[in-house]
């Protein structure tokens, strides 16, 4: 049982007292927390409201706008575990204390350079006029080092929305390029933006994507062929599809359409990044790292803007992949044929299902990644929040795969709409009409034609992206994040 005695503040300069009393049945995790006598300047009561709102938002599991005792205990346990992970990662010497040199090194790893004097100011940090304590020093005993108890007592009642060390390792990066165009853009620190390091990350990511897509292009073209040509009566398999492509145009035909697929990486990445930064400002977020809902909204909108800008290139990629040997002499020739025969609107066929597919892809991708991340942190993070390369690649691969699975029917309908005019005698159907036609003639499984080669390319695409990205970062002089 927890008893709270609260004297409501009045608008005078006197301090107002808040007292928490400890009972014998209080859980052991809270013993050190609730034996407090706090004083709050009455004019700072707004700070209390802001603090309470943050804590309720962080711990309210049933979304009733209130924080009951069980939710509060759960919040404190979870928050204390994250704080311990950060403390152990900051404690470079592993001596149970954090000093100014360790703070300087940890911030340097994040791309932020500070002086020793600034680091000492962090150690001596004072919190004034807040609900947790009107005056509270992080370094209580004046030793210029912080032990675990000092670190925990200072931070425990303050929700850390952006714990830097965990964010550093678990950033859901765009290096996981599986040839799709729906990934949520990466985020960069203020230091990376000021030093111009961000564009080197984008160049490294773009180069990694180009190599990855080129290596997996045969599977990507096979996927497009199966999406368009495979039916219940014409069951195109993996081996049969490759044999058909080689017989029709030789080994070189396996990479047909890959040129435009690689060319669209640069403009799409640049537009998506710029749109993402502007949308973040519009939604009123001045934080370097957004919450999952904000990332979903901002990322989906940025993806929609980027896709709208480069969508004609998507149509060209599909038409080139489906084209016969000698049908087009190149990208420009293909564009000229489409414009002359079908008009400008042909370059935006399948646009609606493509836009609709962004939301389930990005949403499920982010949700699965966050779930896997939290699960790993809860079960296996004991001494550090660094999961290692294998865990990050596995989480990125699984989340991307789930996102693709959810949005795949829309992607298939988009591809068929893009290809309709290239198939002689094929009726020009709307999105809903095409959905009904596929389900009626091929069953629900018809919405997943080409899924096998699409999934086959995920693991090699992610692995190749990561290896090339890391090597390009070294070449460009980019520090590891």
Mean pLDDT score: 77
Structural class: mainly alpha
Strand content: 5-15%
Reported for the largest beta sheet, the result is: 3 strands, antiparallel
Strands, total number: 7
Order of helices and strands: EEEHHEHHEEEHHHHHHHHHHHHHHH
Report helical residue fraction.
55-70%
Shape field: elongated
With strands numbered from the N-terminus, the spatial order across the biggest sheet is 1-2-3
Distance between the termini: 45 Å
Instruction: List the total number of helices.
Output: 19
**Gyration radius over CA:** 28 Å
Which regions contain 5 or more consecutive residues with pLDDT less than 50? 1-44, 128-134
Pfam family, one: EF-hand_7
Organism: Danio rerio (Zebrafish)
GO molecular function, one term: calcium ion binding
Solcar repeats: 196-282, 290-375, 387-475
Describe the structure.
The strands form three sheets. Strands 1-2-3 form a three-stranded antiparallel beta sheet, with no helix packed on it. The protein has a two-stranded antiparallel sheet with strand order 4-7. Helix 3 packs across helix 4, helix 13 packs across helix 15 and helix 15 runs antiparallel to helix 16 (389-419). It has helices spanning 45-59, 69-90, 100-109, 116-123, 148-155, 164-170, 190-195, 197-215, 217-229, 238-249, 258-263, 265-282, 292-322, 331-342, 351-380, 389-419, 431-442, 451-456, 458-476; strands at 3-6, 15-21, 37-41, 97-98, 126-130, 133-137, 146-147. With 481 residues, it is mainly alpha-helical. It contains 19 helices and seven strands. One of its GO terms (biological process) is transmembrane transport. Solcar repeats lie at residues 196-282, 290-375, 387-475. Residues 78-113 form the EF-hand domain.
């Amino acid at each position: 049982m927890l008893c709270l005695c609260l004297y409501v503040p009045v608008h005078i300069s006197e301090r107002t007292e808040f007292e928490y009393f400890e009972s014998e049945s209080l859980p052991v995790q809270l013993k050190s927390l609730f034996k407090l006598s706090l004083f709050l300047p009455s004019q700072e009561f707004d700070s209390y409201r802001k603090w309470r709102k943050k804590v309720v938002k962080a711990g309210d599991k049933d979304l009733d706008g209130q924080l009951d005792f069980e939710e509060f205990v759960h919040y404190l346990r979870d928050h204390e575990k994250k704080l311990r992970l950060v403390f152990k990662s900051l404690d470079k010497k592993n001596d149970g204390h954090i000093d100014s040199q360790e703070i300087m090194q940890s911030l340097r790893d994040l791309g932020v350079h500070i002086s020793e004097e600034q680091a000492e100011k962090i150690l001596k940090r004072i919190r004034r006029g807040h609900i947790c304590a009107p005056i509270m020093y992080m370094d209580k005993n004046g030793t210029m080092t912080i032990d675990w108890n000092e670190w925990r007592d200072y931070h425990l009642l303050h929700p850390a929305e952006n714990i830097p060390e965990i964010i550093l390792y678990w950033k859901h990066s765009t290096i996981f390029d599986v040839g799709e165009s729906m990934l949520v853009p990466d985020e960069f620190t203020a230091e990376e933006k000021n030093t111009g390091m961000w564009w080197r990350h984008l160049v490294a990511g773009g180069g990694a994507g180009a190599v990855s897509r080129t290596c997996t292009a045969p599977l990507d073209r096979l996927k497009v062929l199966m999406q368009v040509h495979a039916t219940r009566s014409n069951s195109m398999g993996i081996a049969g599809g490759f044999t058909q492509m080689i017989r029709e145009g030789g080994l070189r035909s396996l990479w047909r359409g890959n040129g435009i697929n690689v060319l669209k990486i640069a403009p799409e990445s640049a537009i998506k990044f710029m749109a993402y930064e502007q949308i973040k400002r519009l939604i009123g977020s001045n934080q370097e790292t957004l919450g999952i809902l904000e990332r979903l909204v901002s990322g989906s909108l940025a993806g929609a803007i980027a896709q709208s800008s480069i969508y004609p290139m998507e149509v060209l990629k599909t038409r080139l992949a489906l084209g016969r040997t000698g049908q087009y002499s190149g990208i420009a020739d293909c564009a000229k044929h489409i414009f002359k025969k079908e008009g400008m609107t042909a370059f935006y066929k399948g646009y609606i299902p493509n836009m609709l597919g962004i939301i389930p892809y990005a949403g499920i991708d982010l949700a699965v990644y966050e779930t896997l991340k939290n699960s790993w942190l809860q079960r296996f993070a004991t001494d550090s929040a660094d999961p290692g390369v294998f865990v990050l690649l596995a989480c990125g691969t699984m989340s991307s795969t789930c996102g693709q699975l959810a949005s795949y029917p829309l992607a298939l309908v988009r591809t068929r709409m893009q290809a309709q005019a290239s198939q002689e005698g094929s009726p020009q159907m709307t999105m809903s009409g095409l959905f009904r036609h596929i389900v009626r003639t091929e069953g629900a499984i018809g919405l997943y034609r080409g899924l096998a080669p699409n999934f086959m390319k995920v693991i090699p695409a992610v692995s190749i992206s990561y290896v090339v990205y890391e090597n390009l970062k070294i070449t460009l002089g980019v520090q590891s994040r």
